[in-house]
User: Fold this.
Amino acid sequence: MTTFAKSVRKYEKLCRANDVPPETVMAFLVELSMKERYNLYLHYEEEMPEDLEKRFDEGMQRILNQEPMAHVLGYSWFYGYRMIVNGDVLIPRSETEELCAHILSRIDRYFPEGEVECADIGTGSGAIAIAVSKEEPRVRMTATDISADALKTAVINAQENDAHVSFMAGDMVRPLIDRGCRLDVLISNPPYIPSEEQMEKSVVDFEPHVALFGGNDGLYFYRQIFRDCRKVLKDRAFMAFEMGWDQRERMSALVEEYLPEARYEILKDMNGKDRMLFVYFNLGDDE
Assistant:
């Protein structure tokens, strides 16, 4: 056996040699220790329990082979909620948590009373739909995805987080159109990576391509939503999207082409990158 500290130092060195962020080591060990109800920080210089050491070594070997830590654990944390993740869904990212925070603040601002009809298009793991519906009890949330396997994971996540979300199978906005839904808020984090863009091995090899790539310019799914959104939105409504950090000019042109009557804004994430698009219909700055 070895001490926690010695094992962490060993794997941090191996991570640097294998192009894996060294902070992954401590993050992974903390998650394993929490599972075992073992206080890592009180025993950091002591020997690791044998069963914990075995699980840590096995997991770190997978991580050193570029497998995402979330897949090794089988879950990821999003907005304080634990989400099951696997090869059928995209691992939720921290910038998407920022999107949820902005959505919630705008729901409070523009729809301060009564129920709020929302839909998350291309829900994947269900992370956005679950977080928003849990944080704002007035929300009635619907979530769609074309992948039946992704929806299975999303349903489990909703159940485990006691979230009330209605799931629909189908392509983008189509299930909502078919059911005559009318929304106050439409949310989507669609695939927005251009199909020819080079990606990290840990992303390309382990995450679903259908949730990553958005055509030649990355905007294919935004065009679909912009084309169809007025069929499901109420007169007063807004849409919220995650977007690529380098897509500001193209996204602005797209909104102005498809939705010239709308007001829109592009927000930066905590790293100062353009990552969120909000589109408003009959919701003025003074409301």
